[in-house]
Amino acid sequence: MFKYIRKFFLALNANAHPGDIAHAAALGLLLAFVPKANLLWVFLFFLTIFIRVNKGAFFITLIAFSFLVPFADVATEGLGYAILTLKPLGGVFAALYNTPFIGLTRFNNTMVMGGLAMGIIAYAPMYALARTFVTWYRKKLQPKIVNSKFAKVISNLPLIKQIIQAPDVGGFGR
Amino acid sequence: MSADKKTPKIKIAKLFTKKYGDKAYQKKILKKLYVPADKQLVESLFTTVEDPKKGTLHTIDAAKVTDKATAKRLALIAKQIKKQKGRFNLVPILLALAAVIAIVLALTVFRNVIARIAVTSALESSFGAKCDIGRIDCNLLTASFEIDSLEIANRSSPMKNLFGVEKLDLSFNLLELSRGKLVANNLEISGITWNTDRKTSGALPPRKQKKFDKKQKNAKPNPVVAAIKAEADKVKSGVSVGAGIAAVKDQLDPVKYLEKEKAALQSPAVVEKITATVPALADKWQAKNKEVRAQVDKTIGDGKKLVSLDVKSIQTVQDAQAALAEIKAASDSVKASIDLANATAQEATADAKTVKALSDEAEAAIKADAARLKALADTVKGLNLDTGKSILSDVFKTFIVNTLGEYYPYLDKGVTTLKELQANSAKGGKKEASLKKRANAVARLPGRTLSFGNDSAPNLLLRNIELSAKDAASGISGGANVQNVTNDADRVNKPMTVGLTLNHGKMQETANGIIDLRTKAVDTLDTKFTGSGYPLSLDSKGVTGVPSITGTISAAGTLKIARDGTVTIGSGLVVGDAKLAIDSFEPEFVYNAYRNVLASIKTIDLDVKAVIDKDGKVSIDVATDVDKEISNAIKAEMNAQIERVKAGIRKEAEKYIAEQKAKYATEIARFGDAAVKAQSALNDIKNYQATLDTKKAEAEKRIKDLATEKANEQLAPVTDTVKKAAPKSLKGLLP
């Protein structure tokens, strides 16, 4: 867990592409929406692993949103049902349904389809939000934090020290 | 120069020492700096140089990097810039692809090894004995699964196989399998064998065996099976005609008839009254008589001399006077004895009246009882044989309960397994109802799984299962066809059908029916079955009146399991080539009749109805006409014995009456004897008194006579003198 937190803070305070963090957060949310134990989730997970995004941000958002998305399950389920019963897509779904091994994705489950749709819908806003936050943080918050006495006190705390002990941490440690 | 020497050499990151044109500077340096402070630093350190060929170029001004910290920071920034590459990480993707290919290859190459391990493990866990597989082939491309030479060892006899399968061929639907469903159009299992010999022991290694035993130990006992066992024990203990035979004996025993009648007879009470009172009276009077007799005898003895006295032989007046005096004295003493004897005789007469009244009462009672017992014999019109009339039914009931106890657990296990499959399937449907409720929980909702197209199938569907068995060693051959085995009968909307034919030796079984696990089904199972050629051997185990039966049994009936779990079995059973043997018992004529009837029976037809309700209560009814036949034959034989029984009753009645008479007559006679003796004593003493009175009269007369004689003698010489003196003399002589 510390590894992911550390990686996230490293990226946040370094010259990492804001998209790395923003994509990671959006993918974390997407995977949090999609129920596990199906091939679709596994596929998306490995896709995320192989995409150059910030893994720390990804895992933090995935874990954090996993606790929150169940509260949207009714809406997710309803959306999934609405999509799966869309007449124009009936042929596509039937073709997918009758393709061997596609069934393992459980795309025909309302929660899986709804979760995927919710994740996709939330992807862009999440990306934009995360990216805006990173840019704002680096521009406004980071200099203030780095120069504040509070930050210096905090940075001397053992836990924080453990997180920022790496020499390449952006503004911290300088 | 000296200043240059003093300044330490600072190494700047190569990225920044290069010279960039305007565009390159923007693209490769500035646009890759996302931390404003870093961007500001880099921009402040960069400067422009003029190149004759390339024009204005951007590069770092080394002079501005005056300390190592700045150089270090630049190196860090350069490192971060270098890290910024494309979104896709090609190397890991290639590695992952390679891993996937490796896994797929491994699965392809080792699929059969994996399948063998999975099947062996599952079967060993289920049967608790070794599972051997000759060849196994799981082919996804052809969507087939084959097993050759499958053998499951018998746990209780490790050197034998429980069963074996020569070939198992499953053609499954790959599409459905990819959806996590097992849908097969055809499952063929051929060459099924039983109880074949093994070359190696089929016992599991101790560790696996322990695991299996633990699993078995944790298994909950089936309450219905326990109920059937209890019923079997109950029926076993109840199958006896011993009580029935005893009842028959009772009906043939005249003494038993009298015993039953005794309560209504009058004589026993009267006899009891007599025996309670008369002996005491008799004893009393015997003692009293003894006393009276002694006194009478003494009195008579004392007067014996007087009785024998010959008064005429007395020659003198004086002697006569003396004799008279003795007689008077004896007469006085007799009076006391007479009074005693008289009083005793009078008292005895009073008691004798009481005794006579009792005697009369007893005679009347005896007369009435004799008449009643005579009528009792006439009431015996026929003999009753209610008990033991369902003897064969009971014997077969035991047999059926035992058979149920043996085979019901398998039926129950099978139906329970199928029901559990359905229950699991139904659970999915039930979850939909709690969507909203569960939305408040952290756990995710299961959602609804929709199907597209007509090929939608439940998680398990075996459309057609063909089973065939041919075992030369055991002579077993047969086949079965099972259709629509599923875990979601509602979705398939068809009942499971079962057709079975099995031959082994002379035995043959068929079963045709449906297993309907749909929600709205009335009966879960409805099967017609037949079976024939089973050798039957039921041993009576020495129970009185229970026949040992051998023969060949055939059955034809129906088996139904209602939705609530009530099992109903209705079947006709026929025992052909029946031989019924029985051990001898008393009374012999019943045994003979019974044996003859049993010997004449060659076929036994039975109607069986067994119901096991949802709570496990077992009710079994077995009816056969043969029982009635046996009962009637025995009744006829018994009725032929009626006259003998009647005569016996009369004889016993007479004997009883005689006994009763004898009981009181003795006492009455004893008392009568005492009474007679009392009277006899009185008579004797009275006779004695009379004798004494006679003697007295004789003595007085003799005195008179002697006196007269003496006077005449004296008067003759002296007539005158006597005539003169006579009055004076006589006056002095006569008292």
Write a brief caption for the model.
The complex is a heterodimer of chains A (174) and B (735). Chain A is 72% helix and 0% strand.
Descriptive notes:
The complex is a heterodimer of chains A (174) and B (735). In chain A, helix 2 (18-33) runs parallel beside helix 4 (55-68) and helix 5 (73-84) packs across helix 7. Chain A has helices at residues 2-13, 18-33, 39-50, 55-68, 73-84, 90-97, 110-147, 149-155, 158-164. The radius of gyration of chain A is 19 Å and the shape is elongated. Chain A has one domain (18-139). With 174 residues, chain A is an all-alpha fold. Chain A is 72% helix and 0% strand. The two termini of chain A are 25 Å apart. In chain B, helix 12 packs parallel to helix 20, helix 14 (317-379) packs antiparallel against helix 20 and helix 18 (588-600) packs antiparallel against helix 19. In chain B, the strands form 2 sheets. Chain B has a 13-stranded mixed β-sheet. In chain B, strands 1-2 form a two-stranded antiparallel sheet. The N and C termini of chain B lie far apart (222 Å). Helix content of chain B is 55%, strand content 22%. The interface between A and B is large, with 57 and 50 residues.
Q: If interface size is counted as residues with C-beta under 8 Å from the partner's C-beta, which chains form the largest one? A: A-B, 57 and 50 residues
The fraction of residues assigned to DSSP E strands of chain A is under 5%
Order of helix and strand elements from N to C terminus of chain A: HHHHHHHHH
> Ends of chain A: how far apart?
25 Å
Number of strands of chain A: 0
Radius of gyration of chain B: 64 Å
Element layout with pairings:
The complex is a heterodimer of chains A (174) and B (735).
Chain A: H1 2-13, H2 18-33, H3 39-50, H4 55-68, H5 73-84, H6 90-97, H7 110-147, H8 149-155, H9 158-164
Chain B: H1 2-6, H2 14-17, H3 22-29, H4 36-45, E1 46-51, E2 55-60, H5 68-83, H6 90-127, E3 131-139, E4 144-154, E5 157-172, H7 174-178, E6 182-194, H8 206-218, H9 223-238, H10 242-252, H11 254-261, H12 267-302, H13 304-307, H14 317-379, H15 391-431, H16 435-439, E7 460-471, E8 476-486, H17 489-492, E9 496-504, E10 507-515, E11 523-538, E12 548-562, E13 567-581, H18 588-600, E14 604-612, E15 618-623, H19 625-639, H20 642-715, H21 719-733
Parallel strand pairs in B: 6-7
Antiparallel strand pairs in B: 1-2, 3-4, 4-5, 5-6, 7-8, 8-9, 9-10, 10-11, 11-12, 12-13, 13-14, 14-15
Helix pairs in contact in B: 9-15, 11-20, 12-14, 12-20, 14-20, 18-19, 20-21
